Structure formats: structure tokens, C-alpha cells
Amino acid sequence: MTKLTEDVIREIFGDKTFFKGQDYYDNGHVLGAVKLENTLYAQVLGSASVPYEVRANIDDPNISTECTCPVGNMCKHGVALLLQWANDSSSFTDADIFIGSIEKMSKDEIINILKSLIKQNPSLINEFSLETGENPEVNIDAISDKIGWIVHGELDYYHVWDAIRRLEEIKKMADRLMEKESYKGAAEIYLALVKGGVVAYEEGTDDSDGGMGDFVSGCIEDFNKCLIEITDSYYKDKLLEKILGIIEGEDYGLEISEMLRGAVTVENIGRIESYLMQKLKVARKNPDGLGYNSYHWSSVKTTNHP
Description:
By secondary structure, this protein is of the alpha+beta class. It has 14 helices and 5 strands.
């Protein structure tokens, strides 16, 4: 494990980032520090409403840090974490010791620990569910609530990337479900994330860098991959209602209508076509003063209608 000193950290990050991180460390902004093998973890108080999640790899000769702040890597929050380790390693909870102690525990003791963890953070059950069973259940209501909490409020330029990274953590759950071929569960999460992206725009998110839009596009793409694998027409019909509901309120150019491609079936294609034609008529009757969706529908062409 690399021996860290303030001089080494300063050399790695440069003076500007180092001194900013030193201020964070000096003011006690590093919280809940943990060491697991050769990685350090902590929360660091910053400008966001919630602490940033920071990790540092201290085994690699080229020490690296990752953070949920807009900078992402090798930031001042990473400096603060490394300074905490260099100056007070005893303040870190040694997860290796805890894991070693688990090996000596009884089944009941381990179950009680898990119960305590889940009570403190109920969303963990979703993570555990993905690791056990071939067809894990998805608590989509709990996941949707978490997404709603992340995108709630006007996210300015400096905080939107923190929100995106938190949404990406939820997307990883869907990605793992898709890998396990649990396509319905994955599709539900992707759909909830797309809806969350629309809500973020409605709340006034500053997405001048396009990060939120790119994230939503990725969710739409993966959603459609799932629907290709789903053959249950009744289930697709249920998803169709949700998709149309999102489309109805979306006017930000997020291409939500692309989700219709995967949801179309022989049974519901007539309803989709009727919906699109109705939108087309509205757009053609009143083209002035309408938003993105109206112009989008005005360009829609179907195989059965002019």
C-alpha cells in the first residue's frame, strides 16, 4: 500500500486542487471514512445539498480518486479524503476486520446484521434481490420514490451532475437485471428513470452540458432492448399506457416517442396509430406557439396514412 504524505498528495493533485481540498479536510468535511482492502471510502461535505461520495485507490502507484461531484475524478474532495487517511488513518473503519469477524458469526447473527442494515436503508433490499434468485422482484414504487427525491427541486449547473451520477447508480440495477434476462424488471426501472428525467426538466434543471439528456437517451435505448426480448403482449400494453402518459407531458426534445417502437404489438398498433394521428391533426391545426412535441408530431409519417 502506497505511503501517503501531504507532500505526495500535493504533488499528485497540484497546488490549486490540493489547497482547496486541505480546507475541506481542516474544516472536518470528511465523514464516515472506511477502508476496504486498498480502497478508501467517505462522504465529503461540499456545495451540494447532500455530501459527495468519494473513493480513492491507494494501491496503484498512480493514486486515483473518484467522486460524485461535477469534476468526477481527482478533485478537491478526493484530496480531503486522502489527507484524512494520511493524517489520521485510525479514524477509518477497517472493513477488512469486520468482514473477517463475519466469518466467525453464526447464521442468526449475520441475519440480525442484515435486518439492521435494511431497516436503516430499505433500498438495500433491491440490491440484495438482484444478487439472489433467477427472477428477482423489483420494488418499482420504492425505486420511483428514490428517483423522485434525486430530481426534485431546481438542479443548477453545479448540482445536476451529482443527480445524474445518483441516477446512474439506479440504472446499474436495471443493467444487472437485463444481464440476468429479467427484462420486465429492467424495463420498469428504465421507464422510471426516463420519467425522472422528464420531471427534472419540468423542475427547471440546467442541462446546458446535455448530461441529463444523454442519460435519458441511454435509458430509452436500453428500454427498447428489453422490450425486444419481451413477448408478453398484455405487459407491453400496460407499458404503452405509461409511455403515452410520459409523452403527453414531455416537451423538451427528449425523443420519448422512440419508446413506442418496442411497445408496439399487433394488438395495440391501431391505438398507437390513432394517438399519433390525433397529435398530427392538433399540430397541423395550430402550428404557432406550440412546443417541441407539436412540431415533432407534425413530421410523423405512418404507412397507412398520408
